[in-house]
Design goal:
Length: about 150
C-alpha cells in the first residue's frame, strides 16, 4: 500500500508544499517539496494534495492512502464540509478530477505530530524556494505500487 503524508505551509504570505511516500511499516520511499509563491495556508494544503495526486498518476500508483494534518482539507474532500471559498473551489475541482482517474484514494486526518517530516519539508520549500524530490528505494517503491494496484 502506498501511504502519502502531505502538508502545505505559508510563511509571510509565501507557500510551500510537500509530500512523503511511506510503506505500511514506515519506510520512507520518496520525499518531495516545492515552492509555490504567494498563497494562503489553505491554498498550500490544496496544492500539496494536487502535487501528491500528480505523483500518483505519473507513477501508476492507483491505490493510495493520503494523510493530512489539515482538518479543513480532509473534511472538504470527504464532502463533510462544502467548499465555499472561491479561491479553493477551482482547486477542489482539479483534485476531484485527478481522484477520478485513480482506483482507490482515501484521505484521512492525522495530528500534526504524526506529520512532522512533511511539515518540515513544506517549510523548507518556502526557505530555499527550489523544487526537491528524492527517492530512497525505487525497487521497493515499484513493488509497493504493484502490490497495492493488484490488491483491488
Amino acid at each position: 500500500m502506498i501511504n502519502m503524508f502531505l502538508d502545505g505551509s505559508c510563511q509571510s504570505g509565501q507557500g510551500g508544499v510537500a509530500f512523503v511516500v511511506k510503506t505500511n511499516d514506515g519506510e520512507v520511499l520518496c520525499e518531495y517539496h516545492n515552492f509555490i509563491g504567494p498563497a494562503t495556508n489553505n491554498v498550500a494544503e490544496y496544492v500539496a494534495l494536487l502535487a501528491a495526486l500528480d505523483w500518483c498518476l505519473a507513477n501508476g500508483a492507483d491505490v493510495v492512502n493520503i494523510y493530512s494534518d489539515s482538518e479543513l482539507l480532509v473534511r472538504h474532500m470527504s464532502g463533510e464540509y462544502n467548499v465555499k471559498a472561491h479561491h479553493l473551489l477551482h482547486l477542489a475541482y482539479q483534485i476531484k478530477a485527478k481522484i477520478d482517474n485513480l482506483k482507490s484514494v482515501t484521505i484521512s486526518h492525522i495530528h500534526r505530530e504524526d506529520n512532522e517530516l512533511a511539515d518540515l519539508l513544506a517549510k523548507r520549500a518556502v526557505e530555499i524556494r527550489q523544487p526537491y524530490m528524492k527517492y530512497f528505494n525505487r525497487k521497493r517503491l515499484r513493488m509497493e505500487i504493484a502490490d497495492a494496484n493488484s490488491s483491488t
